[in-house]
Design a protein that fits this description.
Layout: H1 2-5, H2 8-30, H3 36-112, E1 117-129, E2 132-138, E3 151-154, E4 157-165, E5 170-174, E6 182-186, E7 192-195, H4 199-203, E8 207-212, E9 223-226, E10 238-247, E11 254-260, E12 269-275
Antiparallel strand pairs: 1-2, 1-12, 2-5, 3-4, 3-12, 4-5, 6-7, 6-9, 8-11, 9-10, 10-11
């Protein structure tokens, strides 16, 4: 067999077969409008066309997604603006509620004490002490009738006393300031005393009646109000509630620990009693 393949007859046979095969392929390639060369070029260009079409689809898809992302961001921005507006309205709502509570307390106090004259003032600065407030600054002063020694209230609650006053501002020492002394009594037992906060109690937002008799009937939950003695604070302003009774100095006395009724850390508006 190998000898036959090497003979001239075998080579002629192979050449004839190649021509016959080519003759069979030419009609197939030539079928249609394209020439064999054009078909061959098209055959080579087909993968490139596929790649181009794929790239075009990807670009179109990316453009669509980009447009969708831009639209989505626009929606998010609009929702953020709406949310900010709603939050502002909520702040205004809470502020209106706070003002309503303030004026309700004021009107009730005024109704019970028609001779009292008040100056309304806003808190514009605070001096903290531990978890509470020892002093704060008001936006009103002597031009509004405010002077040192005047009580500062929130409705029926005693907040503190004016320590100094300028023309358009004033400083308030709160009821937990260690230098503030308040004549008080307990409403059930009628026991009297002087409320004063130690620095340690002041840092906790508390004050105390430090020198009660050891046999005192005052206990936790009892109400402490001003007695009116001394002429600074009118009678029956609410100071706060007794939280516990502890041993006083050297065990000779008892001390009533008092939590102020006014939340000193959240005050925004107060009343200064300028005439009583």
């Amino acid at each position: 067999m190998n000898r036959f393949l090497k003979t001239p007859a075998a080579r002629v046979f192979a050449a004839v077969m190649a021509l016959l095969l080519l003759g069979a392929l030419v009609p197939l390639i030539s079928r249609g409008t394209a020439s064999p060369v054009t078909s061959a070029v098209g055959l080579l260009a087909s993968p490139l066309q596929s790649i181009s079409a794929a790239l075009s689809n990807q670009i179109h898809t990316f453009s669509g997604r980009f447009a969708s992302a831009t639209h989505l961001q626009q929606i998010i921005d609009e929702r953020d603006e709406e949310l900010a507006e709603l939050r502002a309205q909520l702040v205004d709502y809470h502020d209106a509620l706070r003002r309503l509570e303030f004026y309700e307390e004021f009107l009730e106090l005024k109704r019970e004490n028609p001779d009292f004259r008040f100056a309304e003032a806003a808190v514009i600065g605070v001096e903290p002490i531990g978890d509470s407030v020892s002093e704060f600054t008001l936006n009103r002063g002597t031009i509004s009738g405010i002077q040192a020694g005047q009580p500062v209230l929130f409705g029926h609650y005693l907040v503190g006393v004016i320590s100094e006053a300028g023309l358009t501002s004033a400083t308030v020492r709160t009821v937990v300031h260690p230098q503030v002394n308040i004549a008080v009594f307990e409403t059930l037992t009628n026991e009297i005393g002087v409320a004063n906060a130690s620095p340690e109690l002041a840092a906790r937002g508390l004050t105390a009646i430090p020198q009660l008799e050891r046999t005192t009937a005052i206990t936790a939950g009892y109400l402490i109000v001003t007695s009116g003695l001394g002429g600074i604070y009118p009678r029956n302003l609410i100071l706060g509630t007794v939280t516990e009774i502890i041993d006083g100095e050297q065990g000779f006395y008892a001390a009533a620990i008092i939590e102020p009724a006014a939340d000193l850390t959240s005050l925004r508006d107060v009343l200064v009693l300028i005439e009583q």
